[in-house]
Design goal:
With 460 residues, this protein is an alpha+beta fold. It has eight helices and 30 strands. The chain folds into three domains: 227 residues, P-loop containing nucleotide triphosphate hydrolases (Rossmann fold, 3-Layer(aba) Sandwich); 108 residues, OB fold (Dihydrolipoamide Acetyltransferase, E2P); 107 residues, Nucleic acid-binding proteins (OB fold (Dihydrolipoamide Acetyltransferase, E2P)), CATH 2.40.50.140. It has a six-stranded mixed β-sheet with strand order 6-7-8-3-9-10, sandwiched between helices. Helix 2 crosses helix 3, helix 2 packs parallel to helix 4 and helix 3 packs across helix 4. 33% of the residues are buried.
């Protein structure tokens, strides 16, 4: 992509540490003056991507351009970029003025120009009259402002911010969010911001880049990301969601929780498996009057400051999260309504586990680096490559890892209303997807067992 409107062009960036892929073919294009937030859980690759853009790390593959110029192999100090780190990296032996002026002094800028630019930077970050203060005497928010002033005084084309508010308390963090947003408008330079805080991303950004496991999951405006998530990871990670298994009966008619609902989605085909997303604030709740679309019983009601968050159980065993300004008592029978426009239908990423394998003999197959017993496969010989399918609910997870054929650890937990959908990272580095009613915690180590009759084997 070659467009002068893009100040940042990251093309096909990949990075591995040993046998672990941290960034997998990531491409990102940022417009001049845009506030872009890279959002994702710990370990998703967002900070690695920022460090590669800043020049503090190198990509194994890919190209980086700033303002149309290739800077892939340009050292950090020669890039038109400044970075604000989570820990600010201020010099403790220098006062506020000298911290901010440090970069200009290295460039041997004239003293009178340094003074003018330092005072302008202090004014921009609301730190006028603090120039002679010891940085160790400043609050966390004030130190953060000094770090930003030191970064912007060099007039970079791009400002990178690596979780700069993470060390602040909640009130100060919210105050600084607004100040950052105002600073961005005033400065007119491009901000690339890294965070794991979904609310922060929604508040600050023109564009959000959602990452998981080294890959970009979705790029869009905060409204698009929230209202139109492309997959269950994004729907679950951005705000609260009810995510349910469904079947698209036909255009604008979807079935979930055991009954059919009108919706506004089309183009999924007929009787196609889908995921259904319903935001908790989009479920209308009222005292039981038989006037709702379906009924339920309130299981919990918690005050969240602005609204009440309730869990309602339906007669056929589904749990729905609801957010409402009115409280309903635990045990109360209620009626519920969901408007067609508030039902978001997503194509399923997968309907079963599909794995590459190799037959060791007629009754044993090797998948994910381990050998499993299978039903005898007539006509398939040892050494032959095969494709193995396993349904999500046919995988047994064991507390004692020694009881399984192989081990793995829980990487992602998604509640689907009446069961959990887990992502298990196996010893071989493959992902295995499991439906279970058992409760597991993130990073639990589990044993994995699959019965022979549940392995569907086909020639590759």
């Amino acid at each position: 992509m070659n467009n002068s409107n893009f100040i940042i062009e990251l093309s096909n960036i990949s990075k591995s540490f040993g046998d672990k892929t941290v960034l997998d073919d990531v491409s990102l294009y940022v417009k001049k003056g845009e506030f872009v937030t890279i959002l994702g859980p710990s370990g998703c690759g967002k900070t690695t991507l920022l460090r590669i853009l800043a020049g503090f790390g190198t990509a194994d593959e890919g190209e980086i351009k700033i303002g149309g110029l290739d800077i892939t192999n340009v050292p950090p100090h020669e890039r038109p970029i400044n970075t604000v780190f989570q820990r600010y990296a201020l010099f403790p032996h220098l006062n506020v003025y000298d911290n901010i002026a440090f970069g200009l002094k290295l460039k041997k800028v004239k003293a009178d120009e340094i003074e003018t630019r330092v005072r302008r930077a202090l004014k921009m970050v609301g730190m006028t009259d603090y120039e002679w203060r010891d940085v160790n005497s400043l609050s966390g928010g004030q130190q953060q402002r000094v770090a930003i002033a030191r970064a912007i005084i060099n007039r970079p084309q791009v400002l990178l911010l690596d979780e700069p508010l993470a060390a602040l308390d909640l009130k100060m963090r919210k105050d600084m969010q607004m100040e950052l947003k105002d600073m961005h408008k005033t400065l007119g330079i491009t901000f690339v911001y890294v965070t794991h805080d979904q609310e922060e991303a929604l508040t600050l950004s023109d564009t959000i880049v959602v990452m998981s496991e080294g890959k970009v999951q979705q790029i869009g405006t905060p409204i698009d990301i929230y209202n139109e998530p492309v997959n269950s990871f994004v729907a679950d990670f951005i705000g609260e969601s009810n995510i349910l298994n469904g079947t698209m009966i036909k255009d604008k008619l979807v079935k979930f929780m055991g009954q059919e609902f009108e919706c506004v989605d089309a183009g999924f085909g007929e009787n196609a498996p889908v995921d259904v997303v319903i935001r908790p604030e989009d479920v209308y709740i009222m005292a039981h009057t038989d006037s709702g679309m379906f009924d339920g019983v309130v299981q919990s009601c918690i005050f969240k400051g602005v609204h009440y968050e309730m869990i309602v159980t339906t007669p056929n065993g589904y749990e729905i999260m609801i957010q409402d300004y009115n409280a309903f008592e635990v045990g109360q029978h209620v009626s519920l309504i969901i408007k067609p426009s508030d039902i978001h239908v997503m194509k399923k990423e997968r309907i079963c586990n599909t794995l590459e394998g190799k037959m060791t003999d007629a009754t044993h197959v090797e998948i994910m680096g381990s050998e499993f017993v299978c039903v005898e496969q007539p006509g398939i010989v040892g050494g032959e490559c095969v494709t193995v399918e396993v349904d999500f609910n046919k995988i047994e997870l064991m507390d004692n890892k020694e009881d399984g054929v192989m081990m793995g650890d829980v990487r992602f937990i998604l509640y689907k209303g009446d069961h959990y959908h887990l992502t298990i990272r196996t010893e071989s580095g493959d992902n295995l997807y499991v439906d279970t009613h058992d409760v597991w915690d993130d990073r639990d180590i589990v044993g994995i067992k699959i019965q022979p009759e549940d392995l569907r084997i086909k020639r590759a």
